[in-house]
Design brief:
The chain has 175 residues and is mainly α. Helices cover 71% and strands 0% of the residues. The chain has 7 helices and no strands. The protein has helices spanning 13-47, 51-61, 70-97, 101-113, 121-128, 137-156, 161-170. Helix 1 (13-47) packs across helix 3 (70-97), helix 3 (70-97) crosses helix 6 and helix 4 crosses helix 5.
Length: 175
């Protein structure tokens, strides 16, 4: 029979993966926007057209983008864009389907997703006031950990330790 080992969220590698992803989110968004602008300028300089106009004629012209590195850059942008969309759709799923989704959404938004980065928890809590009344520092940090763990379950699937413990409760191993 398995013993129930207390779950420590900070030791869970999925928690750290999600936290790292969230901490880098703003930088990735910024980098992606800059990359798109660089590709737009490169298209304009090399082909004398906007990307939108140019893409309409691309297949007819048979242009080889590999020569000038545009294809590789465009693929990198596409991968980053897909990753951002995955995070965004996971957060939206959390917001709309989780029992604490709306609260978790606002905590994650002001902690990681808002365009401006707040300097400290005090500023984040101030921004949360219209959405979550009377939230203390302790409650903020506890709920933020819960939100990150819930998002981890969505992003990485039901392989997290917390999910495994939950499954064990429903389907205990028999001796």
């Amino acid at each position: 029979m398995k013993k129930n080992i207390p779950f420590n969220q900070e030791e869970n590698p999925l928690y750290h993966d999600t936290l790292t992803l969230l901490k880098k989110y703003r930088d990735v968004v910024w980098s992606l926007e800059l990359s798109v602008q660089r590709v737009r300028r490169k298209f304009q300089i090399e082909y004398g057209n906007s990307i939108e106009d140019f893409l309409e004629s691309i297949y007819l012209a048979g242009v080889d983008f590999d020569e000038n590195g545009i294809a590789e850059h465009a693929q990198s942008i596409e991968r980053s864009h897909k990753m951002l969309k995955l995070v965004e759709s996971s957060v939206e799923l959390l917001r709309t389907k989780h029992k604490n989704g709306e609260m978790y959404y606002w905590i994650l938004y002001f902690s990681f997703f808002s365009p401006q980065k707040y300097r400290n928890a005090e500023e984040i809590i101030e921004q949360l006031q219209p959405h979550i009344l009377d939230i203390s520092y302790q409650t903020f940090y506890r709920r933020r950990k819960e939100a990150i763990d819930a998002l981890s379950s969505i992003l990485w699937g039901y392989s997290s330790r917390e999910s495994m413990n939950l499954l064990e409760e429903f389907f205990p191993e028999r001796p």
